[in-house]
TrEMBL record:
It comes from Mikania micrantha (bitter vine). Gene3D superfamilies: alpha/beta hydrolase. InterPro entries: AB_hydrolase_1, AB_hydrolase_fold, Epox_hydrolase-like. One of its GO terms (molecular function) is hydrolase activity. Pfam families: Abhydrolase_6. This is AB hydrolase-1 domain-containing protein.
Length: 289
């Protein structure tokens, strides 16, 4: 962790905080909610030690990234965030490399799907870990935003199955994969920014669907390996299993190479099973070098 470099990169009208480690082909790691670049710490160290350059930004509205107006959810559409990442790729990747590998989780997977849909010229291959990406990337009218009830300001509730629990006195029970040190890091950042920026991604969902209308029915045409935990909330709701198992997924993603369902693993699969996920990522991307 001490070897990870941190820098600020001006992109698309904001100042993006970026964590970076290693040399070689670039892997862009895209975090979800309520996460930061830090969620990829295990993957960054492993992939950097295996000849890759790991790049993990704080997305707009998160962590040490500044400049996005948190009071305006309309500035948090997938178009804005993809624009941030395209500018980041152009800023940190040599022209000779041009394309990057992409790994996304949760909202990071939503954005990763959108990046592949809008700018496949920037992506070598994608390894996402959320089927919920299908709900926004293709403009499908789904209920994700109503399910989480994040469209408008109000109390924040963590749905059951997301990986956390509360004791009888209401205090948060940490899962085994999240240490007090990890929680301290997240707390130090979210105490400064609050959750407004992250929640704005949900509040912009309807706008995403409207803006993505020209891509309705379009296919994602980059090589993809998909991984999800079998007890992940997003895998067990909203028709996700049927979409994966009955051909809808393969139709929308014709270069889908593999679907991995991890037994007994929940939503934060890259934190719950880092060694296993690291090996899946490494093996998949090796074939494109």
């Amino acid at each position: 962790m001490d070897n990870i470099e941190h820098k600020m990169v001006p992109v698309n009208g904001i100042n993006m905080h970026v964590a970076e480690l290693g040399k070689g082909p670039t892997i862009l790691f895209i975090h979800g909610f309520p996460e930061l670049w830090y969620t990829w710490r295990h993957q960054m160290v492993y992939l950097a030690s295996h000849g890759y350059r790991a790049v993990a930004p704080d997305l707009r509205g998160y962590g040490d990234t500044t400049g996005a107006p948190a009071s305006d959810p309309s500035k948090f559409t997938s178009f804005h965030v993809v624009g941030d990442l395209v500018a980041l790729i152009d800023a940190v990747v040599a022209p000779a490399e041009a394309k990057v590998f992409v790994v996304g989780h949760d909202w990071g997977a939503v954005i990763a799907w959108a990046l592949c849909l809008y700018r496949p010229d920037k992506v070598k291959a994608l390894e996402p870990g959320e089927i919920e990406a299908e709900f926004s990337a293709w403009g499908t009218e789904r209920v994700l935003n109503n399910f989480f009830n994040y469209r408008t300001p109000g109390p924040l509730f963590l749905p059951k199955g997301i990986g956390f629990g509360t004791s009888s006195d209401g205090s948060l029970i940490l899962p085994s994969w999240l240490s007090k040190e990890d929680l301290t890091y997240y707390t130090s950042k979210f105490e400064k920014t609050g959750f407004t920026g992250g929640l704005n991604y949900y509040r912009a969902l309807n706008l995403n669907w409207e803006l993505a209308a020209p891509w309705t029915g379009a296919q994602v045409k980059v090589p993809v390996k998909f991984i999800v935990g079998d007890v992940d909330l997003t895998y067990n709701t909203m028709g996700a299993k049927d979409y994966i198992e009955k051909g809808g997924f393969k139709k929308d993603v014709p270069l889908l190479e593999d679907v991995i369902i991890l037994k007994g693993v929940g939503h934060f699969l890259h934190e719950e099973k880092p060694d296993e996920i690291n090996q899946y990522i490494h093996k998949f991307f090796q074939q494109f070098n």
